[in-house]
Each structure stands twice: as C-alpha cells, then as structure tokens.
C-alpha cells in the first residue's frame, strides 16, 4: 500500500472453503474489483486515493476494475455529479469497462431481493419515526449502540400483529424495512466471516453482524439501502475483491450476513486507511473538503495528485 499522503494522515485483522473461492475466481475469468462512488458531490483526495488503490490492486492481481455509480438516493444524486465523477477519473488517467452500472436502474432487482427476505420472515416493516425511536431509547436509559455509535433499534414494530401490519401497509403509512437480526442469524445457519487481503497475504475474519441489531435494509420509497444494494451488485458484477475505506469495515459483517441469506458469494475484502485534513477531520463531501475539481482549477496535475497520494 502506498505510504500516507503528505499533509494527510490515515484514519487510526481461514476461509470457509478456499477451494470454492478459487473456483469462483477461475469461473469469473479472473479477479474483478470496483470503485463505487455516490454522486452526491464532487470527488476529493480520499476518493482519488481509493480509486487509484483499486486500480493498483487490479494490476497486481492481474484482473480488472469496474466503475459503479451508487445513486440509490434520488434526493442527493445529481447528473452533474455523475458527469464530474467521470471527468475526474478520466483526468486521473483511469478508465473502466463499459457499461458502467448505475444502481438507480436496478430498483426492481433490489425489490425482488427484499421481497425474498420478507417472505422468509427475515425482515419486517417499521412504522416508528426517528423521534419515536429516540424517545423510547431515552426512556430506557443506557442503550447499546451499533458500531457507528447509533443506538440499536429497540424492536418496537417487530412484535406488531400481522393484521395491524397489513392495515398500515394498505393505508400507506410511512415505514422502513428492518432486518430481523435474530431470525437472520438463525437463517444464515453457519459461522460467518470473510477473507481479508493485503500485500502480506490473506487471513480469515470472523463476522459479528449481531452488533448491528435490526438495521434498516430498505425504505418505502426506495426498496433498498446501501447494504442490500451493494451485496446484490457485487454479486451481479462478479466482484471478487472489494477495496474500500476502513469506515466500512464493520459494515462488512452485515454484508456477509446478507450474502449468506441471499445465497450470494462473498468477495475478499481490503479496508484501506481514510485520509484526514490538516485539522484531523476525515475528508468528506458533506464537510466541503477540497475537491479534485478545485485542485485541478488551482493548477494541480494528475501527476501531482498521484505523487501526493503515493502513486508516483
């Protein structure tokens, strides 16, 4: 892995069937990676680092890297940002096979996956508002949190009667769809984990999805979530190796569970360090971190960016 970029600092782990994993790679024609940004802002240096690292691993592994546009959020995904992603990556000297997958075009596929989980009793509708959830948690005093620090859902709607659920759905009451974690863990029926890889080799990581509780996997207006869509798409595109930021390392436990429930293969995973600005804050579109377009306008070249990120 390249050293931490100058002026930026990184954010401070036995396969179940290695033979099957190897066969999967052979049948797919070789390793396949993907860079999958969301079009809710312009790319910044953190995105450039991840895109270049994916490309580097693809070369080292003798495979290819795909581009995926993760635009399941209609309120935040903008066509101009998609154009900006394509432009920025081309400017960096990166190219990808066509067609480029856009998640917004596959809502029916995500709905089918969701319906399968609901039909097996592994997901249920939740009619609680955020305010109601906060109030219930507050009344309980101390409450366990998920790996992101968010209090676990208390399971209020998990026990609602089928008649009441049917009535509320028929009325169109606002709701999300939550994974019934206890039922899901029983349904997975085996030890869960994944192969982590880096330059030093591979190692087996045991997964603990239960720490996410009854997490949201879809909404009424969007029949998916990041978690459901990403495991579906990784399988649909034949992704064998996932290289992404360390902020998603804990979520991999949940992804491994969904893969087991949906009968999907589990890729190998590498979670790279995140990049921070001079104030020690993680680079983020929501914080207005300097974009590649800004750097480009200021006279930076692709070579400058590559050198700064350790890819000279």
Automatic annotation (TrEMBL):
This is Glutamyl-tRNA synthetase class Ic. GO terms for biological process: glutamyl-tRNA aminoacylation. It is an enzyme of class 6 (ligase). InterPro entries: aa-tRNA-synth_I_CS, Glu/Gln-tRNA-synth, Glu/Gln-tRNA-synth_Ib_cat-dom, GluQ/Sye, Rossmann-like_a/b/a_fold. Pfam families: tRNA-synt_1c. The lineage of its organism: Bacteria, Pseudomonadati, Pseudomonadota, Alphaproteobacteria, Hyphomicrobiales. Belongs to the class-I aminoacyl-tRNA synthetase family. Residues 1-24, 280-299 are annotated as: Disordered. Its EC number is 6.1.1.-. Keywords: Aminoacyl-tRNA synthetase, ATP-binding, Ligase, Metal-binding, Nucleotide-binding, Protein biosynthesis, Zinc. It comes from Methylobacterium oryzae CBMB20. Residues 33-296 form the Glutamyl/glutaminyl-tRNA synthetase class Ib catalytic domain. It comes from the Bacteria. PROSITE patterns: AA_TRNA_LIGASE_I. GO terms for cellular component: cytosol. GO terms for molecular function: ATP binding; glutamate-tRNA ligase activity.
